[in-house]
Amino acid sequence: MPSSPKIAKVEPLPGDEAKWIEFHKISWTDQAGTARIWEAAARKTRGKSGVDAVAINTIIHHPSRPTSTIIILQYRPPADAICVEFPAGLVDANETPSEASLRELHEETGYRGKLLHISPTIVSDPGMSSTNMQFATVEVVLKEGDKEPEQALEDGEFIERVVVPIDELYERLEKYSEEGKKVDARLWHWAAGLRFAKTL
Amino acid sequence: MPSSPKIAKVEPLPGDEAKWIEFHKISWTDQAGTARIWEAAARKTRGKSGVDAVAINTIIHHPSRPTSTIIILQYRPPADAICVEFPAGLVDANETPSEASLRELHEETGYRGKLLHISPTIVSDPGMSSTNMQFATVEVVLKEGDKEPEQALEDGEFIERVVVPIDELYERLEKYSEEGKKVDARLWHWAAGLRFAKTL
């Protein structure tokens, strides 16, 4: 039985010690011609695709169950909480974002699907960092009696997958929040957009 | 006529020079009891609300126009591009996220509205940073002939507001992407959720 993850210490990270992220001091000239400085974080892992990460909206069709998606629950040290997210991951150095989407979906959830759509490159938090991503939609068609597949997690990865009927997603995210879990902003926005559509 | 913003130089930012953001080296123990290190970025500006930022979905009702929202276009140095976002901003030290939502909406768009809903605290990019936010929905009711209000921008802020019929939002974001603008991931997800709802 795994125990609860726990933070022992948070220290300042010297720039020359950082392996995964780095800080940039951007000297720029604004629209009025004034010289300014902007501070930004960046990932050091961006490969030749130019895209840091992907997130995957899985659409599961099943003959007798409601159309569902998959969300994942995992402890994230920066938030010191169980976070609720779409399956997601970094794009490998020589991979395309489309390839990364199908690979990450398989690793984190066990499911293999067909890529229906991938977004253009969108920016994750552009006031603070250069990180970017693409958002994939992957279709999984199940037959009656299909078993839930095995996840293909790496050593040291603890990821719980949850299949949620899309119609119940927003309420499920509200409930996770009430329990103290932290919902990823992008997943929340997707569910909020879906719910908002019902009011139009 | 403002000129195009331009980046002159990007340098490593030493941690002791950073005013707005900081790097954390998080020592933690995972679910198997293994000691690990996680690198994370954080904002230094979080106030007593515990929430870094807000974004605002404005719902504009008008007697003879389609229900619309407001998006903003502004140059963001970390992305080195014009970014397309919901109105958004940092929560001031002694402010609540609800207060910040109405203030930022007024400053960036000129509109004053009524707060209909605010989300729980959600996490912006939890694999890489501790930044968090709340997502507000604000209603603006216009009468026939109401004039577009004046923005209340601070000196040095160059923000273009665009009122978009909600039914046209997704296609508008696709078009901006094709033009080389960078759409914020949260705004994209909201529009994608809204569009997905039409397929159900």
Describe, in plain words, how this protein is organized in 3D.
The structure is a homodimer of 200-residue chains. Chain A is α+β, with helices and mostly antiparallel strands and 200 residues long. Chain A has a single domain, classed as Alpha-Beta Complex (Nucleoside Triphosphate Pyrophosphohydrolase), CATH 3.90.79.10. In chain A, 18% of the residues lie in helices and 40% in strands. Chain A has three helices and twelve strands. In chain A, strands 4, 5, 6, 7, 8, 9, 10, 11 and 12 form a nine-stranded mixed sheet that branches. The first copy, chain A, has a two-stranded antiparallel ribbon with strand order 2-3. In chain A, strand 4 (53-62) and strand 5 form a beta hairpin. The longest helix of chain A has 13 residues, at 97-109. The N and C termini of chain A lie far apart (47 Å). The mean pLDDT of chain A is 95. At the A-B interface, strand 1, strand 2, strand 3, strand 5 and strand 6 of A face strand 1, strand 2, strand 3, strand 5 and strand 6 of B. Chains A, B: Keywords: Hydrolase. Chains A, B: It comes from Melanomma pulvis-pyrius CBS 109.77. Chains A, B: InterPro entries: NUDIX_hydrolase-like_dom_sf, NUDIX_hydrolase_dom.
Please provide a brief summary of the model.
Two copies of one chain form a homodimer. By secondary structure, chain A is an alpha+beta fold.
